Structures are given as structure tokens and as C-alpha cells.
TrEMBL record:
One of its GO terms (molecular function) is ATP binding. It comes from Holdemania massiliensis. This is Ribokinase. Gene3D superfamilies: 3.40.1190.20. InterPro entries: PfkB_dom, Ribo/fructo_kinase, Ribokinase, Ribokinase-like. PANTHER family: RIBOKINASE, SUGAR KINASE. It holds the Pfam family PfkB. Keywords: ATP-binding, Carbohydrate metabolism, Kinase, Magnesium, Metal-binding, Nucleotide-binding, Potassium, Transferase. Residues 1-286 form the Carbohydrate kinase PfkB domain.
Length: 310
């Protein structure tokens, strides 16, 4: 049976409601603070699990972060490969003003405590054909990609946040690349979605490219097949975590043996559910919610999709 490993980040996200974004030398009292579990690794693991996959999580857990392990356990995600380290947990301090504008300070903390030994010990439990899901929020990412490739794992990468150097990551070793339009432009120096896909068709012909375009939908490129699909027509409340939801449900559908088109449709419906609720991991829908929205808008998605060989 094909196994799934998410090797990634866990963050505690502290949201502070403020009158205005704080200025230098200013002290301001926040009338409200909320703490949520986040990190792209945790979010994508939760989405995979909600999409029906059996998920293993690897990463580094910092101090005073029991809420993170409780969340993983709540979603039936295995924490066998999670390591406790004597460092502060990764966290984000997020100011949000009355207009919805925000300012975010991220501290990677324990997420940057991954060691070569942890990588080796974890990958030893996985074999050729198993799925590795990674993001760019942990250290030693290149080492992890290279070692996973050597073992024959299928590698799905969401390279967010993007590195300073677009050539810093060994993308040629990646099997599925999940990027949004900003990340696509960063790697390709192109702005048009079709030009971005053309770039990857030339530079990474063996990699499946999944390009999300916000309210313009998404595109998938696999081999010589290219599919574009719109978003589900839903009221947007909060887009935080929508991309991670999309990634997780796409991969859960792939693990279930669905076609590329059906993987894209499932991810589209799941992210449609996610944007209609507040929060990141808290907004990730169940499989039943996702299927209900997909069935409601199936005709629209199928009639509006564009599918062609190039």
C-alpha cells in the first residue's frame, strides 16, 4: 500500500486585532488575540487526512506546543516521526486592522531544527512509490529532496515561501510542483499563466505542474495535457489556507487513484469550501463537505473547463 509522508512545518499563529498597523516607537493595546495552529506542513497534512488519506507527519516540535500535537492527533495524523527539540516553536505574530490589512512576523524556530539523522531515520521507513509532501518552511530541504529521490519516493513540492535564488531548489527531482501565480512568475520570469506553463513544459517536462490562480481558478499540466478549471462560485470570506487545502485534497485524490481531471476538481471544490470559512487549518473541509460542493457545481466546472493537448 502506498504510504504518505508530510515532512514540514508546524506553527502557532497569533492573531492580534489592532486599530492600525503599529508604527516604529509606538505601543498599542490589542483588544483581541486568537491563537490558531498553522504552518504549511500542518495545513497540508490536515487537508490530506480530511481528503481521505492516511498521513504520517515528520518535523520538529518546539517548546510549549502541545496544541500542535493535539491538532495532528485530532485529525488522525501519525506523529511517529515528529521530533521534540529544545527550541521555541515556530510561530507567527499577525496584526490585523479594521480594514483587513495585516502585518506578519514569522519566526521559524523549531522548524529549522531538522537534522540529517532525522531525515535518514524517517526516510528509512518509506520506499519506492510512497508519496513525500514538502514545503519550503524547513531547513535541509535540498538534502531531503535528494535523499527522497534516491529512494524512489514520489515528491510533491510547494516551494513557498520562494527562495531568494530561483535555482536554489532541485526542481528537476520533483514529480509534482504546486505553485501560485506569484511563485510561477518568480521561477519563470513570465506573468501570463500559459507562458508560465510553457516555461515549465520546456524546463521540467517530466514534472506535473499545478498552477493556482486565485479567483481565476487553476491549471494542471501533465505530459502534453493541459487543463484549466474555474473556481467554484462561492462567497469568499477568508482565503487563508485555501492553497494548502487545494494541495492536500489534490494529493488525497491522487492517492485514491483518481484521474488528473478529477484530482483538479476535488481540489477546486475543497478550496471553495475553505474560502467560505475563517481560519487556516480550522477552515479545511471534510470529504463529505467537499463532495457536496463538487456535486452542486459539477456541471459548471465541467462545462467551463478547458482541456487540450499542446
Amino acid at each position: 500500500m502506498q504510504k504518505c509522508l508530510v515532512f514540514g512545518s508546524l506553527n502557532l499563529d497569533y492573531f492580534y486585532t489592532v486599530d492600525h498597523i503599529i508604527a516604529p516607537k509606538e505601543t498599542q493595546s490589542a483588544p483581541q488575540m486568537q491563537c490558531f495552529c498553522g504552518g504549511k506542513g500542518l495545513n497540508q497534512a490536515v487537508a490530506l487526512s480530511q481528503g481521505g488519506a492516511s498521513v504520517n507527519f515528520a518535523g520538529c516540535l518546539g517548546q510549549a506546543s502541545s496544541l500542535l500535537t493535539e491538532t495532528l492527533t485530532q485529525y488522525h495524523i501519525s506523529t511517529e516521526f515528529l521530533r521534540q527539540v529544545d527550541q521555541p516553536a515556530g510561530h507567527a505574530i499577525i496584526q490585523v486592522d479594521g480594514n483587513g490589512q495585516n502585518a506578519i512576523l514569522v519566526y521559524p524556530g523549531s522548524n529549522f531544527a531538522v537534522t540529517s539523522e532525522q531525515i535518514d531515520e524517517t526516510l528509512a521507513h518509506f520506499q519506492k512509490g510512497d508519496l513525500l509532501v514538502i514545503q519550503n518552511e524547513i531547513n535541509r530541504l535540498n538534502e531531503l529532496i535528494c535523499k527522497a529521490h534516491q529512494r524512489g519516493l514520489i515528491i510533491a513540492l510547494n516551494p513557498s515561501p520562494v527562495p531568494v535564488d530561483p535555482k536554489a531548489l532541485p526542481l528537476e527531482l520533483v514529480d509534482l510542483l504546486f505553485i501560485n501565480e506569484v511563485e510561477g512568475a518568480f521561477f519563470s520570469s513570465e506573468n501570463d499563466p500559459q507562458a508560465i506553463l510553457d516555461y515549465f513544459a520546456k524546463t521540467l517536462p517530466d514534472t506535473q505542474i499545478i498552477l493556482t490562480l486565485g479567483d481565476q481558478g487553476s491549471c494542471l499540466q501533465t505530459g502534453r495535457l493541459r487543463i484549466s478549471m474555474p473556481c467554484c462560485p462561492v462567497e469568499v470570506i477568508d482565503t487563508v489556507g485555501a492553497g494548502d487545502t487545494f494541495t492536500g485534497f489534490f494529493l488525497a485524490a491522487k492517492l485514491a487513484g483518481k484521474s488528473a481531471l478529477n484530482c483538479l476538481a476535488m481540489a477546486t471544490a475543497a478550496s471553495g469550501c475553505a474560502v467560505s470559512k475563517k481560519g487556516a487549518s480550522a477552515s479545511i473541509p471534510s470529504l463529505a463537505e467537499t463532495m457536496a460542493l463538487l456535486n452542486k457545481h459539477r456541471d459548471y466546472l465541467w462545462n467551463q473547463k478547458i482541456e487540450f493537448n499542446f
